[in-house]
Amino acid sequence: MAAAQVNRMKILSLYREMLREAQKFTGYNYRTYAVRRIRDAFQEHKAETNPELIEGYIKKAEDNLNIIRRQATISQLYREPKLVIESDSVKTS
User: Fold this and answer.
1) Are 28 and 82 in contact, with CB atoms under 8 Å apart?
2) Which domain holds residue 14?
3) pTM for the full model?
4) Whole-angstrom Cα distance, residue 85 to residue 91?
5) Is the residue at 60 inside a domain?
6) Residue 81 in domain
């Protein structure tokens, strides 16, 4: 039971960290896609009970976290102009 609790804490930590890192993408489309994929992947596997599969998913999530970190850093080096949907001020006529 203790191992299950440790895995649960590790999974929640990975989930939060991946979402946090995905928010660092400068491009709106990349950012929203990453957040949606992270949520969908974790939601898809939330009922998994097989410890071997869970360990595999954790390893894959850690690898993907490193990819997200790298890509977020690259996106900050090559910034794109903000889209209309991202604009802070709303223009009124």
Assistant:
1) yes
2) 2-86
3) 0.81
4) 12
5) yes
6) yes
